[in-house]
From TrEMBL:
Coiled coil regions in record: none
Entry's transmembrane regions: none
Protein's recorded name: Sigma factor-like helix-turn-helix DNA-binding protein
InterPro entries documented for this protein: RNA_pol_sigma70_r4_t2 (IPR013249), RNA_pol_sigma_r3/r4-like (IPR013324), WH-like_DNA-bd_sf (IPR036388)
Top-level division of the source organism's lineage: Bacteria
Domain RNA polymerase sigma factor 70 region 4 type: 23-68
C-alpha cells in the first residue's frame, strides 16, 4: 500500500517520509495500523474482516506502533535526549 495525499495540508516531502516509515512495517502490521488509524475501524471489525482473533489484531497493532516509534526515533534527531534542532 502506498500513501498518497490530496490538497495542501501536508507537503509531498512529508507524504514521502510517511510512506517510507510505513513501508518499514511488515505488511500485516501496516494493514492493521492503517485500518485503526485511517479507517477508524474497531478491533472487532478488523478481526472479522481479516478472519483472525481480536488478540492477533491487538498484537499486530501493538507491534506495528512500536516499530513506528523505533523507526521514527532513529530518523528524527530531535526525538533523542540532549539533541536540539534549529
Amino acid at each position: 500500500m502506498t500513501i498518497t495525499h490530496s490538497g495542501n495540508q501536508i507537503s509531498c516531502l512529508e507524504v514521502r517520509d510517511l510512506d517510507w516509515v510505513f513501508q518499514m512495517l511488515w505488511e500485516q502490521q501496516r494493514e492493521v495500523v492503517l485500518m485503526v488509524g485511517l479507517d477508524d475501524m474497531s478491533y472487532a471489525e478488523i478481526s472479522l474482516m481479516l478472519g483472525m482473533p481480536v488478540e492477533a489484531v491487538m498484537s499486530r497493532l501493538s507491534r506495528g506502533r512500536e516499530r513506528l516509534r523505533d523507526v521514527t526515533a532513529r530518523v528524527r534527531p530531535e526525538s533523542k535526549p540532549g539533541v536540539t534542532s534549529t
